[in-house]
Specification:
Chain lengths: 404, 173
């Protein structure tokens, strides 16, 4: 047996048994963050806090929600909203957080793209982040099924139909996913399971992976400066904090991180209490009916851009374009052929590529919400083709980018 | 010597784990299959004698909407060969029977009696009164469910003579 001295404090007792001090040193006290960053570097913490809020509000919703096609709608819209004390709070917090989390994810993503934070050793941070995006998308979709309203039902119908893979007619696969010919009891219960267990567990594992991928390469900085973290850490530890280019993650950086979180939470709870309506589609306040399609079926705002890439094409071409849009961001570290890790504004043509991509995704989002008629169809089509075109030219323009 | 023993133990474990993994995956796949009770509840009888001309009736079969449309004489007169071939003739009247789900992504198209056609609100697809696609994105006509004509009634889910003939000539899907 290993040799243990008598501990002089509770902290020491735990340290002997768990190596708490080592953990604290590796993860906080000597985990170095560059000074040259801005508030956009706090989005990771904002996302972690938002995930925590989703988890807590979800636990309270779970206590009254009934995953049964006859009871689900009323358990949400009557029991939780009207009977349970503060049930409305958990529901609005959960719905608003589910929507806002995607806003922050997109900001987090485009920050990474702008500053080149997916290059030179940071590829796995980007890839694990995109896997998290996929997991959050699946979590959002499965959660959207649960109130069993009209939009739940028809979104479930349309999205599961995608798995028939167009002209391949894999109807057996679709029926297997649903456990029925149409979304029904088996479908609701299995998506309930996915939403409250399997996907959240996957998300937590991926968050661990995402943080782990960050530890060795460290976070990027505003100028893409290649920092010698050991040298800068020595300066900091020897008391020369002013000359050091880095600060410790905790408590130095954390205090700033949490300040941004506080600002964010004020905005978040403003939405929860006074402007929750954007996260509550009116059509979903009609109970699911397999014999009546709503006039327009559209996803929540955060899926509109990829939905608009599906829509203007014929069935098979649309599906291929949609599949392309789903996976292409993952490949960004390998499609960007330039070795420059600097902000986009110093990267020649990539600067225009970045802003064109951002504007194009906003246009796709706007068109996805509008009915597919006349000029909107045309704009949507052009924006979808532009999206694909931008990804195709990315390796070329970055290959010829001047090395800085 | 030790290395060979460890190698053997590793392979033995691999074999046992492999068999277990395949078995577990098969059990998981089967647990997600539609239940026998879901598969068995699959027959719907429709009485056609009460259908009015150019008025769409929507029945439910295996959770899906089924369109039943009795065509008027003018509608039949203006039809081409392909449209006629999809008609089901019961006691002298022409009927369209089809699964009322758009072949694009499964929304329910709405019937427009004045134009005698179907319009899907989701992505703008259109079908004529025989269920044949006329406007993209759908690339196929509405599906015809298995049916059997008995007198003035039609049983959905059972394959009758007329259905089999349609299937042979490739009209079903």
């Amino acid at each position: 047996m290993a040799h243990f001295e008598k501990a002089n404090s509770l902290g020491e007792w735990f340290d002997q048994r768990l190596g708490v001090k080592t953990l604290e040193r590796v993860l906080a006290k000597e985990y170095w963050i560059p000074k040259d960053i801005n508030f956009l570097w706090a989005m990771g913490m904002v996302l972690a806090i938002t995930f925590g809020i989703l988890l807590i509000s979800g636990i309270f919703l779970l206590m009254y929600y009934q995953p049964n096609v006859d009871l689900a709608f009323d358990s949400v819209n009557y029991t939780i909203m009207q009977e349970v004390g503060f049930g409305w709070l958990w529901r609005h917090v959960h719905a608003v957080a589910a929507s806002v989390v995607f806003l922050i994810i997109y900001i987090h993503m485009f920050t990474g793209i702008y500053y080149g934070s997916y290059k030179k050793g940071r590829e796995l941070i980007w890839i694990s982040g995109m896997l998290l995006f996929v997991a959050f998308s699946a979590e959002a979709f499965s959660g959207y099924m649960l109130p069993w309203g009209q939009m739940s039902y028809w979104a479930g119908m349309v999205i599961t139909n995608l798995f028939s893979a167009g002209s391949l007619e894999l109807n057996g696969v679709v029926e297997w996913i649903r456990g029925d010919y149409v979304p029904a009891q088996a479908f609701l219960t299995r998506f309930f399971m996915l939403h409250v267990l399997l996907i959240p567990v996957a998300i937590m594992a991926l968050i661990g992976f995402h943080f782990g991928a960050l530890r060795l390469p460290h976070v990027n900085n505003q100028n893409g400066t290649d920092i010698d973290f050991e040298e800068e850490a020595e300066k900091y530890k020897s008391g020369n904090k002013a000359a050091s280019k880095v600060i410790a993650f905790a408590n130095d950086f954390m205090s700033k991180d949490m300040f941004v979180v506080a600002v964010y939470l004020v905005f978040f709870f403003y939405l929860v209490f006074w402007n929750f309506g954007f996260a509550m589609d009116p059509v979903n306040f009609d109970p699911a009916d397999g014999l009546v399609t709503p006039a327009h079926i559209y996803p929540e705002w955060y899926f509109l851009w990829s939905y608009e890439i599906l829509r203007p094409f014929s069935k098979d071409v649309g599906l291929i374009a949609f599949a392309f849009a789903q996976v292409i961001f993952v490949l960004l570290p390998f499609l960007d052929r330039s070795p420059n890790t600097v902000p986009a504004n110093r990267r020649g043509l990539f600067k225009f590529w970045f802003w064109a991509m951002l504007v194009d995704m906003i246009v796709l989002t706007a068109m996805g919400k509008l009915p597919p008629e006349g000029i909107f169809s045309t704009i949507g089509f052009v924006a979808a083709v532009t999206f694909i075109g931008l990804w195709l030219i990315l390796p070329i323009i970055t290959k010829f980018e001047k090395k800085l | 010597m030790n290395q060979t023993r460890r190698g053997f133990m590793g392979k033995a474990f691999g074999a046992v784990a492999g068999v277990g993994a395949v078995g577990a995956l098969y059990a998981m796949k089967r647990s997600w299959d539609p239940l026998p009770s879901v598969k068995a509840a699959g027959f719907t009888t429709v009485d056609l004698s009460s259908c009015a001309e150019n008025k769409l009736i929507v029945e439910k079969w295996r959770g899906k909407p089924i369109f039943v449309l009795r065509k008027s004489a003018e509608m039949v007169a203006s039809q081409n060969e392909a449209q006629n071939a999809r008609d089901i003739i019961v006691e002298g009247s022409h009927y369209m029977i089809a699964i009322g789900l758009c072949t694009h992504l499964g929304c329910i198209p709405a019937y427009r009696a004045d134009k005698s056609d179907f319009k899907c609100a989701c992505h703008g697809g259109e079908f004529d009164s025989s269920g044949i696609n006329t406007v993209l994105p759908p690339e196929k006509p509405l599906l015809i469910p298995p049916f059997k004509v008995t007198g003035a009634t039609v049983v959905l889910g059972e394959e009758g003579e007329v259905y089999k003939k349609m299937k042979e000539s490739g009209l079903i899907a």
